[in-house]
């Protein structure tokens, strides 16, 4: 197993990026940072070099999916067998990649057709460990990993920290670039699921990850708050995913209901309320019209 870590950056905090790259570089066989037009690209280049990595420097923000595909292409061209996808704020603990690689090998041997495996990340804003998600008809179940020691199947895993065989990426296809950002990882996992592959979470692989800049309380749930533009992309892409034939029924219902919840809660409870309302409504219109890609593309 030869693993290339692919970290996508966009105006990152350099001190945190150095921690991210340093935590991953010793656990893989190669490292590449794909930058999406950051203003601090020289600092990113220096930080990547110090971690033993290389950079791919885009002149503008081409979106996370396109950047990840660039990293995958680099891995394929240089004889790697797997990619480890990273966000610019995901910090690995020692042994994390080894644990996931061991679990992935065991799954391939015992189950076969494994799409990807990801860590049981600890979300810093909500102070909670991620859960596995499974659709069964119209029902969507959320499964705790607290007492698990073996990999747990999940309909999707987040991209950051995920370990993916290049053979699966060649079979399923790369990440859907015109989604740009938000739900790119979910769409790929659903597409892999429809092709007969399963994604898993590794309870013994621990990672710290931050979703958004904070949370708002919606009923009994805490929902991550991102910058307003992310409300546009999430709603647009969610409603697009709800219409795809490979999206399970329970997830179709979830995406529609959650988009309506976004419309009701973010403009009322989060900051920049007028901007959020305008962007969510535009996301709904663009999704219905089938307009994807960057918002001003």
UniProtKB/TrEMBL annotation:
PANTHER family on file: GALACTOFURANOSYLTRANSFERASE GLFT2, RHAMNOSYLTRANSFERASE WBBL
Protein name (Swiss-Prot/TrEMBL): Glycosyltransferase family 2 protein
Family from the record: Belongs to the glycosyltransferase 2 family.
Gene3D superfamilies, per the entry: Spore Coat Polysaccharide Biosynthesis Protein SpsA, Chain A
CDD domains tied to this protein: GT2_RfbF_like (cd02526)
Keywords: Glycosyltransferase, Transferase
């Amino acid at each position: 197993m030869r693993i290339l870590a692919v970290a996508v950056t966009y105006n990152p905090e350099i001190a945190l990026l150095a921690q991210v790259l340093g935590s991953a570089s010793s656990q893989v066989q190669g490292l590449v940072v794909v930058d999406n037009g950051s203003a601090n690209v020289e600092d990113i280049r220096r930080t990547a070099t110090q971690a033993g990595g290389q950079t791919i420097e885009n002149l503008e923000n081409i979106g996370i999916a396109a950047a990840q595909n660039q990293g995958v292409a680099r891995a394929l061209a240089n004889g790697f067998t797997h990619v480890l996808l990273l966000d610019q704020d995901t910090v690995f603990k020692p042994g994390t990649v080894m644990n996931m690689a061991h679990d992935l090998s065991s799954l391939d041997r015992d189950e076969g057709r494994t799409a990807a495996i990801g860590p049981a990340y600890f979300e810093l804003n909500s102070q909670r460990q991620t859960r596995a998600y499974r659709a069964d008809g119209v029902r969507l179940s959320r499964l705790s990993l607290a007492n698990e020691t073996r990999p747990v199947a999940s309909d999707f895993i987040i991209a950051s920290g995920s370990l993916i065989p290049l053979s699966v990426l060649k079979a399923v296809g790369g990440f859907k670039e015109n989604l740009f950002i938000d739900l790119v990882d979910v769409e790929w996992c659903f597409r892999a699921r429809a092709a007969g592959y399963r994604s898993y979470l590794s309870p013994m692989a621990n990672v710290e990850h931050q979703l958004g800049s904070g949370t708002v309380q919606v009923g009994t749930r805490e929902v991550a708050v991102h910058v307003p533009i992310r409300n546009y992309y999430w709603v647009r892409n969610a409603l697009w995913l709800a219409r795809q034939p490979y999206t399970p029924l329970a997830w179709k219902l979830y995406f529609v209901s959650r988009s309506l919840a976004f419309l009701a809660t973010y403009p009322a409870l989060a900051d920049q309320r007028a901007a959020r309302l305008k962007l969510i409504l535009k996301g709904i219109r663009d999704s219905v019209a089938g307009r994807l890609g960057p918002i001003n593309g």
